[in-house]
Amino acid sequence: MSMCLSNHLERHYMRPPLKGFMLLQKSLFQKVLMSITPAKTTVRSDYGTEVGKVELLALVKLLLESGAHPDTATPEGVTPLNFSIAKGDVSLVKLLLKHVADINTPNGIGMTPLFRAIQDGSEDIFQAFLFANPNLSTRCLNNSTLLHAAARGENDTILSTLLQKLNAHRDKDVEESSISVDTTDDAGEAPLHVAAERGCVKVARTLLTHGANIDLRDNAYVTPLIEAMSHEREDMVNFLKSQGANLSIVHEFRFLKMVDDPGKRAILYISLLQGLS
């Protein structure tokens, strides 16, 4: 193997976010290099160096089987599992789970790998996690639940599966029963507030089907309808109206909106009641 390729591989696999995972003894790293045939070496942009059929998955498999710990994290708290989810690499996620990677440890911002996968809206990775018996009561630093993450991910299939499993746990009176469709974060927002802000009608419909309170107020007394209106989500406003959202609450709110004028910026008071009559 040429020194150039060796250096390229070392630079790639010894850098964050895999740095902690790939801090190997010299003999182990040499074992990786010796498994590669120089004639099959190509370069690509997504993973850096690809060596014939010996791609990242095969390299990680070799490292794991040689004793590398699957949960070694970078100083920022990024584990190989976090990295794999960010890449959307289902095969790598499954490999790490097979080697019992920790699925419940949060990263530096309090987000577990499962939380990240759900928020990214990856159904395949989400399904892989379900086989690992994850903790469904996990929360992020602001006390967001996995249901909040699903609403942000705008994936109603993941959301429906989560709700079904949480309901099943509630019937069995287990830990996850503390999480419901209306469980709020530190701002008092429920998943329906998140869906309303994003204008994701399909997620809002799923939440309401599972009993979400359409008029639940957050810490600022904002309901999902007000949330949708303040973010100009017309389709969501119409949907919530059709589902019986309380319109009288709109009288309580006036919002400031910045509007560009030629040569100046004017501040206008916008009545959110406009168009709701």
Automatic annotation (TrEMBL):
<keyword id="KW-0677">Repeat</keyword>
<dbReference type="InterPro" id="IPR036770">
    <property type="entry name" value="Ankyrin_rpt-contain_sf"/>
</dbReference>
<keyword id="KW-0040">ANK repeat</keyword>
<feature type="repeat" description="ANK">
    <location>
        <begin position="76"/>
        <end position="108"/>
    </location>
</feature>
<dbReference type="Pfam" id="PF12796">
    <property type="entry name" value="Ank_2"/>
</dbReference>
<protein>
    <submittedName>
        <fullName>Chromosome 2, complete genome</fullName>
    </submittedName>
</protein>
<feature type="repeat" description="ANK">
    <location>
        <begin position="187"/>
        <end position="219"/>
    </location>
</feature>
<dbReference type="InterPro" id="IPR002110">
    <property type="entry name" value="Ankyrin_rpt"/>
</dbReference>
